[in-house]
Amino acid sequence: MSQSTTTGTTAGAADGAGARRRRSPRGARREPGARTGAVGTLMVLPPLLVVTLFVGVPVVSGVLYTLGHFGGLNSVIASIGLHQHPADHWWGTLAAYREVLTSDTFLRSLTVTVEVTLVSVVVVFALGLAVALYARLSGGRTARLVTALAVTPLFLPAVIGSYAILTFYAGDGALTTLAHALGWSSAPRLSYTTWGVIVGQVWTNLPFAVLVLTSGLAAVPDALIEAARDAGARPAQVVLRVLLPMTSVPAVITATFTTIAVLGSFTVPYLVGPTAPTMLGVQLANAFQSFNQPQQSLVTAVVVFALASLVGVAYVRSNVREARRAASVTR
Fold first, then answer.
1. pLDDT score for 261
2. pTM
3. pLDDT per position as a tens digit, 214-258
């Protein structure tokens, strides 16, 4: 009786120890995962704090200032600004927005900004796509040279490029001098014009478009192109039915970031463009520096941010649709 009890007790203890040994590996596996999650959270915190302090807080403070909240972080700028509209409700006031959005100066600048953006994006995308397609389909030294020339403005500051455009297209610049030498007395003078701004925007944003589109086309397998050619597809059909459908994401990235870059540009339109009407980036700077109207300047900045956000929403939706399509194909 005692022996059987002892044996049962020993067996039970052995079973309990075995169960603990069987459970311990799972616990050991969970513990490193928890530590990894904690380490990951600590690694994310520094950039999150930086973004919050240097982006989030200024954005929220600026929007509150446009609504007429002059306390806290806005107290200093509110003490020196002119023609300000204080809040008349708990949420603020839209008086500054009404003043800016109904002014002729803003409406003309908005029109010029939209026109320059649309034309610049179309030209940049067309030139970038042409260079990328040429590099992908032909190859060789000439294609590499063309690509290198298209990317060269990436390594030059926008200030230098703007002054180069300003000098080249001026009334006494190289283009006008050459035109007069050839007997063309009515050559266009693009300095201090909207068309000069478009030239500068194309010059500044073309390298990014070429890099993105070239990398996107390079990811298309050669086997697909060769199969299309073997099936009798002409070069135009290869481009339209093989290359372009497979580079929709790089195309959206190019169009989106070019649009945002042109919308928020300051250097090129300030140096190359006319005095009036100007693009919104120049107008908001003038409102703050020349007229000491920080509230109106921030209203213009909010409008630019809203326009860029619309483009960003289109970009995110396009990526989401592409991710869902890829997931459905994988399944």
1. 94
2. 0.82
3. 999 998 888 888 898 888 888 888 888 889 888 888 999 999 999
| Cα–Cα nearest to 107, from 305, 307, 302, 280 | 280
* Residues with Cβ within 8 Å of residue 314, at least 6 apart in sequence: 252, 256
Tokens of 272: 């190359």
Amino acid 13: pLDDT? 46
Show the DSSP H helices in the chain as ranges: 2-51, 57-66, 75-80, 95-101, 104-137, 140-151, 158-168, 174-181, 194-218, 222-230, 235-238, 248-263, 267-272, 280-289, 294-330
Please check the confidence at residue 182 and state whether its pLDDT lies above 70.
Answer: yes
Q: What is the DSSP string of 58-113?
A: HHHHHHHHHTT--SGGGHHHHHH-SS-----SSS---HHHHHHHT-HHHHHHHHHH
Label residue 144 exposed, middle or buried (CB < 10 Å: 0-12, 13-18, 19+). exposed
